[in-house]
C-alpha cells in the first residue's frame, strides 16, 4: 500500500540521512520525498510517500521516525482528509500538426506552457498525483522527451496547525 | 576519582575557551570516572588536554577493545561509557561496538576526531564520513561545528544516551574545533523539543493489565534487559509475588529476577529451558517487561504464545507490536509501571494449577548433559565457577556455545552481574568488556568466560589487564573449534565442518605468560578443580585454558524455523 507521512524536523545536518536510513533499513521503498522550509524558522517540513506492505509497516516506520531526536512531529496522514499537491515539468515533442491538439489538453488540466521551442513544449502541471499521471498518459503518444516530478507534498485539511504541537505517541 | 567541578556560578554566564578545554570541563561536569580511548592525529589536541586533566584514561590496545570495555562498564553501572577514538581508522574500528551497544541499548558517549573543517569532504588523510557510517547504529550523532557548541552538545549527548531507551551517542569533533576558542555557557539549558521519552505509563492501560491478570489462569511474565536498565528488579519481584505470576528471563534479562526464587522458571529462547519455553507457549496472558521479542527468543513467530493475550511494558513505543500483536500496550519506564501495578493490588490470577504444571515441567525436564565421558564437560566448568564464586561473581561472556552454557548454568540471583553481547552476538566482546566490568566493580570477582576463537579476536587487551593488575579470571572454554558454528554444521549441514576447526592454536598459557599473567591448563574435572581453586585464591589476573569435550553441543535447542514448543535435546 501507499502511505503518506509528514514530518516536521529541526533543520540540522544529517537529519534527512537519518530519515531515509530508517526506510532503507526496513527495505521500504520511498516513492517520493519533498523537503522545504516550514512556517517556522529552522524547522523544515518533509512529506514522504512510501510503499509498504500494510498499515502495520507504516505504524512501525512512524514510531521509528518518532524516536529521532531531531524530528519534532510525525503524522501518518494516509487515508485522511488532506490537501496534497505535486508539480511536474514535462517536455513534449511538437510539430505543426500536434501543436493545437496538445494545447487543447492543457486547458482542462489547468496546466501551463512555460517554455516553447521549435520542436518542444515544456508544460508545468500541479495537482494530485493521479491527475498528473492521467495527464502524462495523454501526452505519451506525442513523445515525452523529459519528465521531472517533485513528489507529493501534503498536509491535513482544516484548521489544525500541526508543526507546533509536541510529539505524539500513537499508543497511549 | 573525585573531580572538583567548576560550574559557572550563574546560568547564562559565558566563558571563553578552546574546544578541547570545553570538552575537558564538560567531562568533569558529567562526573566521567574513566575514559576508554586511543589517540591519533585528529584527537591530538584533545589528548594534549587529557595529559593533565586528571580524568583517568585507559589505553586499550585496539579501539574495538576501548568501546567494548566502555560497554562492559556501562552495563554494570548503567552510566554512559565514554570512548575517544581518532578519525578515519580509529573511528571505523569502533563501528562494531556501536552496533552492539545500539542493539542491546547500552548507553555510550563516543567522541571521534575528524579532519579539520576546512578539508572535510576532500578525502583528506584519515578522513571517514563517520556520521554517515554510524547513523543507523547510534541513537543520535553530532558533528561539532564550533567550539562554543561543545558544552551544549556534550550535555545533550549524556542525557540522550542514558535516558529513555539507552543507546550510544557519537560526537565527531574536527581537529580545528578542538583547537580554536569559542564562547559558551558551560551549563546550558537542555532544549530537546524532539526528544521526550515517556516515563509515566498510561493509567488506563495499567488498569487493563490489572483486569487481564485477575481473569487469567496461566499468566507469565517475560522479563528482559529493560528491567535491568530501569533498575526495576525489586519492583518486579514485588509484583510477581503479589500476583503469584511466574517469571521467565530473556538472555539479556538474566539477574533481573532471582534464579533461586520459587516463581522463576528459567531462561527462554533458542537454548532456554524447556519449562520456560513451554510456559510461553501455553500461557493465556503474557506480560512482557522490557523485552523486545527477538527471534532467538520467540522461535517461529507463527507458533509463539498463540493462546495468550499479550501485554507489553516498554519505554520504547516502537517495540510494542513490532513483532508480536499486542493487546495491552504500556509505554513507560519498567520500574514506574511495575510499582503502579503493585499499588493497584488487583485481584490475583487463579494460577495454582498453572504453577503446578510449571513445577512438573521443571522437575521432569531440567537442564541436563551427558556425564558419561571422562573429558571435562563445559557445562560442569560453569557449575564449578558458580560453586567457587558462590554465585556472586560478575560473569562476562563472549559469543558462542560457552555463552549459552554460562547463561544456562551460572544461575543469576542478583541484577547487574551478567555482561553479554546478546543482540549483535559480537565475538571478541568478552575480554575488553570484562576490563570495563572490573573497573566498574573493583571489589567484585569478575570472570570472563570466553571461547578459544573469540578470545583470539581481542586477546591484545591482556596487556591492559596486566598493566592495571585487574584480577579478572579469564576462563577459556577451549573446544578447539568455532564451537557454535561446528554445532550447526553437525546438525544442519551434514557434519561438513567447513572452516570451523582449528588446525593450529597458540599456547594460551604461554601467551598469558608473555603478558606476565599467571595461567594454567586443565583437561579433566579434577585438574579443573585444582586450577580454579588456585585462580580464585589469587588476587590477580589469571588465565585458565580449560580443554573441554570438543564435540559437546548446546541443548536443549529450537532448530531454526521451529516454534518454542518444539525443543530438541530435552532430558530423555
Ligand atoms: C565477530 C563475529 N564473527 C563471527 C561470528 C559467528 N560465530 C558465532 S559463534 C562462533 C564460534 C565461536 O567459537 P568460540 O569463540 O570458540 O566459542 P564456542 O562456540 O566454541 O564456545 C562464530 C564464528 C560472530 N558471532 N561474531
From TrEMBL, chain A:
Pfam families: ACT_AHAS_ss, ALS_ss_C. Residues 4-79 form the ACT domain. One of its GO terms (molecular function) is acetolactate synthase activity. Pathway: Amino-acid biosynthesis; L-valine biosynthesis; L-valine from pyruvate: step 1/4; Amino-acid biosynthesis; L-isoleucine biosynthesis; L-isoleucine from 2-oxobutanoate: step 1/4. One of its GO terms (biological process) is isoleucine biosynthetic process. Gene3D superfamilies: 3.30.70.260, ACT-like. Chain A, domain 2 (3.30.70.1150). InterPro entries: Acetalactate_synth_ssu, Acetolactate_synth/TF_NikR_C, Acetolactate_synth_ssu_C, ACT-like_dom_sf, ACT_dom, AHAS_ACT, AHAS_small-like_ACT. The keyword Cell cycle does not apply. PROSITE patterns: ACT. Keywords: Amino-acid biosynthesis, Branched-chain amino acid biosynthesis, Transferase. It catalyses: 2 pyruvate + H(+) = (2S)-2-acetolactate + CO2. Dimer of large and small chains. Belongs to the acetolactate synthase small subunit family. PANTHER family: ACETOLACTATE SYNTHASE SMALL SUBUNIT, ACETOLACTATE SYNTHASE SMALL SUBUNIT 1, CHLOROPLASTIC. This is Acetolactate synthase small subunit. It comes from Peribacillus saganii. The lineage of its organism: Bacteria, Bacillati, Bacillota, Bacilli, Bacillales.
From TrEMBL, chain B:
GO terms for molecular function: acetolactate synthase activity; flavin adenine dinucleotide binding; magnesium ion binding; thiamine pyrophosphate binding. Residues 206-341 form the Thiamine pyrophosphate enzyme central domain. Residues 19-131 form the Thiamine pyrophosphate enzyme N-terminal TPP-binding domain. One of its GO terms (cellular component) is acetolactate synthase complex. Its EC number is 2.2.1.6. Pathway: Amino-acid biosynthesis; L-isoleucine biosynthesis; L-isoleucine from 2-oxobutanoate: step 1/4; Amino-acid biosynthesis; L-valine biosynthesis; L-valine from pyruvate: step 1/4. Keywords: Amino-acid biosynthesis, Branched-chain amino acid biosynthesis, FAD, Flavoprotein, Magnesium, Metal-binding, Thiamine pyrophosphate, Transferase. Binds 1 Mg(2+) ion per subunit. Binds 1 thiamine pyrophosphate per subunit. InterPro entries: Acetolactate_synth_lsu (IPR012846), AHAS_TPP (IPR039368), DHS-like_NAD/FAD-binding_dom (IPR029035), THDP-binding (IPR029061), Thiamin_PyroP_enz_cen_dom (IPR012000), Thiamin_PyroP_enz_TPP-bd_dom (IPR012001), TPP-bd_CS (IPR000399), TPP_enz (IPR045229). SUPFAM superfamilies: DHS-like NAD/FAD-binding domain, Thiamin diphosphate-binding fold (THDP-binding). It is an enzyme of class 2 (transferase). Signal peptide: none annotated. Its cofactor is Mg(2+); thiamine diphosphate. GO terms for biological process: isoleucine biosynthetic process; L-valine biosynthetic process. It catalyses: 2 pyruvate + H(+) = (2S)-2-acetolactate + CO2. Transmembrane segments: none annotated. This is Acetolactate synthase. CDD domains: TPP_AHAS, TPP_PYR_POX_like. Belongs to the TPP enzyme family. Residues 398-545 form the Thiamine pyrophosphate enzyme TPP-binding domain.
Amino acid at each position: 500500500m501507499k502511505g503518506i507521512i509528514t514530518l516536521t524536523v529541526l533543520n540540522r545536518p544529517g537529519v534527512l540521512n537519518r530519515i531515509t536510513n530508517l526506510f532503507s533499513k526496513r527495505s521500504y521503498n520511498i516513492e517520493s520525498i519533498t523537503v522545504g522550509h516550514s512556517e517556522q524558522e529552522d524547522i523544515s517540513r518533509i512529506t514522504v510517500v512510501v510503499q509498504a506492505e500494510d498499515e502495520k509497516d507504516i505504524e512501525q516506520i512512524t514510531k521509528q521516525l518518532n524516536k529521532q531526536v531531531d524530528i519534532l512531529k510525525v503524522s501518518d496522514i494516509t487515508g485522511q482528509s488532506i490537501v496534497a499537491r505535486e508539480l511536474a515539468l514535462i517536455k513534449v515533442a511538437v510539430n505543426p500538426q500536434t501543436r493545437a491538439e496538445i494545447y487543447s489538453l492543457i486547458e482542462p488540466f489547468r496546466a501551463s506552457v512555460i517554455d516553447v521551442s521549435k520542436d518542444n513544449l515544456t508544460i508545468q502541471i500541479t495537482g494530485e498525483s493521479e491527475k498528473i499521471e492521467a495527464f502524462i498518459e495523454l501526452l505519451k503518444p506525442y513523445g515525452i522527451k523529459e519528465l521531472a516530478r517533485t513528489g507529493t507534498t501534503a498536509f491535513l485539511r482544516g484548521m489544525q496547525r500541526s508543526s507546533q504541537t509536541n510529539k505524539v505517541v500513537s499508543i497511549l | 576519582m573525585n573531580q572538583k567541578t567548576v560550574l559557572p556560578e550563574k546560568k547564562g554566564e559565558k566563558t571563553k575557551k578552546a574546544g578541547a578545554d570545553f570538552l575537558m570541563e564538560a567531562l568533569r561536569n558529567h562526573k566521567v570516572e574513566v575514559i576508554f580511548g586511543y589517540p591519533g592525529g585528529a584527537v591530538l589536541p584533545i589528548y594534549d588536554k587529557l595529559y593533565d586533566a586528571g580524568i583517568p584514561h585507559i589505553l586499550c590496545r585496539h579501539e574495538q577493545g576501548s568501546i567494548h570495555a566502555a560497554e562492559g562498564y556501562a552495563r554494570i553501572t548503567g552510566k554512559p561509557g565514554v570512548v575517544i577514538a581518532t578519525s578515519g581508522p580509529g573511528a571505523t574500528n569502533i563501528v562494531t561496538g556501536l552496533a552492539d551497544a545500539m542493539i542491546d541499548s547500552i548507553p555510550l558517549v563516543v567522541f571521534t576526531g575528524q579532519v579539520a573543517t576546512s578539508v572535510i569532504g576532500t578525502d583528506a588523510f584519515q578522513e571517514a564520513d563517520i556520521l554517515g557510517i554510524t547513523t543507523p547504529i547510534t541513537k543520535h550523532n553530532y558533528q561539532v561545528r564550533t567550539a562554543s557548541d561543545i558544552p551544549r552538545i556534550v550535555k545533550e549527548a549524556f542525557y540522550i544516551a542514558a535516558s529513555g531507551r539507552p543507546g550510544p551517542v557519537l560526537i565527531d569533533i574536527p581537529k580545528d574545533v578542538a583547537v580554536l576558542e569559542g564562547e559558551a555557557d558551560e551549563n546550558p539549558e537542555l532544549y530537546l523539543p524532539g526528544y521526550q521519552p515517556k516515563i509515566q505509563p498510561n493509567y488506563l492501560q495499567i488498569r487493563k493489565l490489572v483486569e487481564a491478570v485477575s481473569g487469567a489462569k496461566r499468566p507469565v511474565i517475560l522479563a528482559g534487559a529493560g528491567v535491568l536498565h530501569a533498575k526495576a528488579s525489586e519492583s518486579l519481584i514485588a509484583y510477581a509475588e503479589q500476583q503469584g505470576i511466574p517469571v521467565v528471563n530473556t538472555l539479556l534479562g538474566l539477574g533481573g529476577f532471582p534464579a533461586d526464587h520459587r516463581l522463576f522458571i528459567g531462561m527462554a529462547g533458542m537454548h532456554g529451558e524447556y519449562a520456560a519455553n513451554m510456559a510461553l507457549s501455553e500461557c493465556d496472558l503474557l506480560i512482557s517487561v522490557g523485552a523486545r521479542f527477538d527471534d532467538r527468543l520467540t522461535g517461529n513467530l507463527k507458533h509463539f504464545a498463540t493462546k495468550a493475550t499479550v501485554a507489553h511494558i516498554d519505554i520504547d513505543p516502537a517495540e510494542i507490536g513490532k513483532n508480536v500483536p499486542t493487546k495491552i500496550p504500556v509505554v513507560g519506564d519498567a520500574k514506574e509501571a511495575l510499582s503502579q501495578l503493585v499499588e493497584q493490588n488487583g485481584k490475583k490470577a487463579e494460577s495454582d494449577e498453572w504453577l503446578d504444571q510449571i513445577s512438573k515441567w521443571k522437575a521432569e525436564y531440567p537442564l541436563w548433559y551427558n556425564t558419561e565421558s571422562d573429558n571435562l564437560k563445559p557445562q560442569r566448568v560453569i557449575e564449578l565457577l558458580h560453586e567457587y564464586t558462590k554465585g556472586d561473581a560478575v560473569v562476562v561472556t563472549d559469543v558462542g556455545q560457552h555463552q549459552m552454557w554460562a547463561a544456562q548454568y551460572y544461575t543469576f540471583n542478583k541484577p547487574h552481574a551478567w555482561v553479554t553481547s546478546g543482540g549483535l552476538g559480537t565475538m571478541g566482546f568478552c575480554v575488553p568488556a570484562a576490563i570495563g566490568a572490573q573497573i566498574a566493580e573493583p571489589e567484585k570477582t569478575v570472570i570472563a568466560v570466553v571461547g578459544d576463537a573469540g578470545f583470539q579476536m581481542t586477546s591484545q587487551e591482556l596487556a591492559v589487564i596486566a598493566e592495571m593488575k585487574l584480577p579478572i579470571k579469564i576462563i577459556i572454554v577451549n573446544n578447539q573449534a568455532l564451537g557454535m558454528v561446528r554445532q550447526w554444521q553437525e546438525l544442519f549441514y551434514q557434519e561438513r565442518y567447513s572452516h570451523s576447526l582449528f588446525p593450529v592454536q597458540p599456547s594460551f598459557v604461554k601467551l598469558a605468560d608473555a603478558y606476565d599473567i599467571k595461567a594454567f591448563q586443565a583437561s579433566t574435572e579434577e585438574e579443573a578443580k585444582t586450577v580454579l581453586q588456585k585462580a580464585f585464591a589469587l588476587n590477580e589476573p589469571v588465565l585458565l585454558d580449560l580443554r573441554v569435550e570438543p564435540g559437546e553441543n548446546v541443548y536443549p535447542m529450537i532448530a531454526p524455523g521451529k516454534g518454542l514448543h518444539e525443543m530438541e535435546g530435552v532430558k530423555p
